[in-house]
Design a protein that fits this description.
mainly beta; outer membrane lipoprotein receptor (LolB), chain A; 13-stranded antiparallel sheet; single chain
């Protein structure tokens, strides 16, 4: 799934995860059950279909709603750099309102270790590192957690195929994915992936007590460069608090020529 909360991302040429050897050509997983093998294969196929986008950029409107329906609106920009042998790098810059203008968030996603994340706070004029112990905390007061704001690499989960199910007239695989990171705020996630294009349309997040915490729905997919699908509307609903956060994307651009220098800790304060 794209820059923010990307379900489909780059699969390394050869990676070791959870005792499995994964490659773009084969999977050696003799100890997996049939349901686990099928769930893993679906995740790998979804990941493979988004390989090669190089980089992208977009504009976002974030709408935060409390349980009474009252709204506050934030506008941001994001850009992502694809990595050949690791997770993606992403930068999000807040443009307004005034109290968050200039705030910038930088994320380096890793396939086999904890992600590196930093937040630049202009009021303090300093860069704050996000501790791995705080990855389950809310991102800028939204219903998205910090761990949601990184590319969802295949190696970060173990998988199980649950069933096929029709959703909004489309046939979907429903797979269960269990975070490998013991510091994740989730016990398990269920993901609805359509059987034609392998796009995620819905994710149910369960808390550490195995109670349903949140549901993410993705709509209005558009295809770019005859390959890469991006959803323009993301809705995250917190069932336990009644709050929600909506993200609306626009102006997707690919092949911007971004480089490593555009995604450094030192560049956060200069992000424009």
């Amino acid at each position: 799934m794209n820059t923010l909360l990307n379900i489909n991302n780059t699969l390394s040429t050869l990676a070791v995860a959870g005792g499995l050897i994964l490659s773009s050509q084969f999977v050696i997983a003799a100890d997996l059950s049939q349901a686990e093998q099928k769930g893993l294969n679906i995740a790998i196929e979804a990941d493979k279909r988004d390989v090669g986008f190089a980089d992208n950029a977009s504009k976002m409107t974030m709408i935060l709603r409390n349980k009474y329906g009252e709204e506050s609106i934030r506008r941001m920009r994001s850009k992502t750099l694809e990595q050949d042998n690791d997770g993606d790098k992403a930068l999000i810059i807040f443009d307004n309102p005034r109290d968050v203008k200039g705030t910038a968030f930088l994320s380096f996603t890793h396939k086999a270790s904890s992600d590196d994340q930093w937040l630049y706070l202009p009021a303090l004029k300093r860069v704050k590192r996000i501790s791995s112990n705080n990855k389950s905390g809310p991102f800028m007061g939204s219903e998205f957690a910090f761990e949601d704001i990184s590319s969802q690499e295949v190696e970060k989960y173990t998988y199980k195929y649950l069933r096929n199910e029709t959703l909004d007239g489309r046939d979907h695989y429903v797979i269960e994915r269990d975070p490998v990171d013991p510091k994740s705020g989730y016990s398990v996630q269920n993901v609805w992936i359509d059987t034609q294009e392998y796009r995620a349309f819905k994710v149910d997040y369960y808390d550490r007590k195995a109670d349903l915490l949140k549901t993410l729905t993705l709509k209005n997919y558009q295809q770019y460069n005859n390959q890469f699908w991006r959803a323009d509307n993301w809705m995250m609903i917190n069932h336990q608090t009644g709050k929600s956060t909506e993200l609306n994307y626009e102006g997707w651009r690919f092949a911007n020529g971004f480089g490593e220098r555009d995604f450094t800790k030192n560049s956060l304060a200069r992000a424009k």
